[in-house]
Amino acid sequence: MNKLSTRDKFLKHFFGITGTLDEYKRNEANRIGTNAFMGLYAYLLISTFLAFVFINIYPELTLWVLLAVNLLMVIYGVGLYIMGAARKTLLTENEAETKDIPQIKQQNRRQGIRQMVFFAVGFHILQAFASGHDFLSHLQDPVHIGIAAVSGVFFGLTMTAIANSRIKEVGQD
Questions:
Q1: Closest of 99, 106, 103, 112 to residue 161, by C-alpha
Q2: Phi and psi for 148 in degrees, rounded to 5?
């Protein structure tokens, strides 16, 4: 059995590739990544030029706008492009035989529970940092704990549903 390199593990996780990482999937992931990089590179050139133009007139506003738009571009622009392109090229499909589908769905549920817990804890800690109030009192507040728990459950259920929707049933030959 081939041991995956750290790069291959990251590639599979980042693109949502399940199963083996064959040559087709690797080439498609590399192509999608290259396209995303070229778009992001062009965006960075333009946004940096515009920041230099406006920095002397509105220094603080320019900084905040640049940071906010960069964050939105990375999350929504590049992220949505990569997700859509990976789905279009069938990188994210998980082909499984009919008899293996219950086992895969069980794995998806376990992974969804892990994601639920990590998201809820991370969300709660980030809220405590961002609240501007006393960190420990925020961590112990039942209302905020409940909000984080509900958010985590919603996130875990969504991720489980997405993973289950990627399962493609193939017949036994």
A1: 112
A2: -65, -40
Entry field: residues in the chain: 173
Q: Which of 113, 44, 104, 49 is nearest to 74 (CA)?
A: 44
Tally of CB atoms within 10 A around 60: 8
Among candidates 128, 172, 132, which has minimal Cα distance to 147?
A: 128
Chain centre distance of CA 20: 20
Residues 6+ apart with CB under 8 A from 123: 148, 151, 152
Describe the crossing of helices 79-88 and 6-15 by its angle, rounded to 10 degrees: 90
pLDDT tens, position by position, 65-113: 999 999 999 988 998 899 889 889 888 887 788 888 889 899 999 999 9
Q: Are 108 and 163 in contact (CB under 8 A)?
A: yes
Query: Is the CB of residue 120 less than 8 Å from the CB of residue 127?
Result: no
Q: Which residue has tokens 């859509």?
A: 84
